[in-house]
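Give me the 3D structure for Flagellar hook-associated protein 1.
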Amino acid sequence: MSMRIAYSAANSALMTIQSQMSVSSNNIANADTDGYTRKVANLTATNSGSYGTGVTVSSVTSTASSSMVKSVVKASSTLGSAEVVASYMSSLGDAMGTIDSDGTTGSSLSSMIDDLESSLRSLADTPESDTLVAQVLGAVDDAASQLRTTSASVQQLRSQADSDIDAAVDTVNSALNTIDSLNEQIVSGQARGLDTSNLEDQRYTALQSISENMEVSYFTDSNGAMKVYTDNGIPLVDSQVHELSFNSAGTLNSGVSYPTNLSGITVGSIDITSNINSGAIGGLLQLRDEDLPAVQDELDQLATSLMTALNSVSNTGTSLPAPNSLTGTATVAGTDAVDGSGTVRVAVLNSDGEVDEYQDFDLSSYSTIDDLIADIDGMGGISASLDSDGHLVISADDTDMGVSIGAMDGTMGTDSENMSMFFGLNDLLTGTGASDISLSSRIAEDSSAFAVGALSDSSTLTVGEIGVAAGDGSVATALADALSGETTFDAAGNMSAMTTSLSSYASGILSDVSTSVDSSESKLASAETRYTTQSEALSSQSGVNLDEENALISQLENAYATAASLIEALNSMFDDLLTAVKST
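Predicted structure for Flagellar hook-associated protein 1 (584 residues):
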């Protein structure tokens, strides 16, 4: 009986050692395989009654602890978000331009506004210089172009983020289906007592793919199936797959936003967008819906303030010679009420700036826009009307004459604008925000239409006198002062309401973006450190060490030789016993 047990024990040792060597050899073969974790053969003693009969491999499992895996999964979500935000912020920083170390030159909006102010002051000293006029208009165009370009870059980044969300959702859905498929194989294999450890590694790799894109919670049930949920408990994989849904918008502009007209991420009918705060998708949503729109708001605030500051001045001025016709940019209706006060002067000038006709209009005396236009139209040498688009058109009847408007102390509308600005008759800049701000097409096509001087506001002005002097650079000076003076800005993006210069506000936008870039880089470094620490700890626990595996195989080979020698000895003993029995 004891020899039979000894033989059984030695034979089981051979089989067990072979299984252990197979596991160790597989570890060595997969040492460089992504997602592979070191496997161990778990041994169980076998018995026959009260006697031990050897050992067997009860299971093959990974050496990775579930708690450490969870730590790596969570760290990968944090890293996924940090990586994408840092990358996009770097691109945004590049789009914002630069300022040289001395703060005086560069490609930023602030430096371009400073350049424009400098050009205007030079023009104010020599207002009759066509070269200086061209420099000023070039500087205006450069600033407007930079605003448009920067705005376009912001929206391009939003569009890219939207597209990247779409790709990330596809990645998550693919990984969810992989987990579901592996669940079936693992549950079936474990029920039949098969080794499913490699399948579990593949499932962990799929889980990692999900966690890099969004933070999830998960657990493995008693049957071996992994259940995956969103961070707020919406099932993604239970008895079936619940895929994410998302519709990419394509090209975005500043007028589209979530949830009004941009897609969120849903699971079935449940919108989970606000619950995805980590992973690449969380970072992309933050960029598309928060960070980048905040910068756009700041750019729009700068653009509209720049237009208001310059147009309020340019609409007090007159070019020389004065234009034959002025067409407003504001859309009005003739029946609109006039909220006016003070006096505005309209004059007809010859090419030398001499007054041919003029009249002052008391803006407080009109009930409607039609009433005001009718009075202007009734002035000698002038025609005034609304065109089909609701724009005021004022023209000199004589094609050799020009129209000039003097602001005087007249104001219209709730913003108390001078009449010319209210109608947009002599705007230097046009547009609604940073995306479409531009130099007036009328001035871009004819630089002589740029208003440098102003119509005389003298109460004793008479026909034949100079209404606009050739050397008058007062409007150029006022434009420069508008740039350097204080402007009141509403709260926008990350910037609070403030009163400062346009250049300083532009610098503030660059500073805000620079701060965001630095913050994103700091968060990325922290996330990388955390992920590396967790990954190295997991690798130390479950990674394959070739030296250790080779040493283990050497030990197993020795043990195998010992077991084989034992079997050989037992066989010899059996032979001797049989010989002894036969000889008796």
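The chain is about 50% helix and 15% strand. Let me know if you want a second pass.
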